[in-house]
Design brief:
The protein is mostly helical. It has seven helices and no strands.
Amino acid sequence: MLFVAEGLAFRAGLRRLAGCDAEARADIEEALAIGRQSGMTFIGPIILGTMARIAVDPALRRQAIADAEVLLAAGSVCQNHLLFRQDAIDACLAAGEWSEATRLADDLVAYANAGPMPWSDFVAARGSALADVGAGARSG
């Protein structure tokens, strides 16, 4: 069932990009229900990152981020750290939560510090730069 949850989470992300918000929310809620029933260790942070990205309610977005960070702190496979943080950064940028987006970008850099990857370097630098611009910072 965990691969079903994974597929639903990825489909929810695609539906969000296509502007099919109601379908995206239905997919991510189903993915979360399956994950909670089967175990959140394998894919939970990715599901919660997608939920944060889709969430309209700020409290739901913040709770999804907090819940995912608890799972990551308990130990999780690499893709959870990377994909969760990408969605969480973008969710915070979209909500105008500049300092939270910067914190998440810094967390991504810290996670990848043992062996930085170009992908994580890009995602973190992009998130920090967009948060700075959103917060009003301008440079030459």
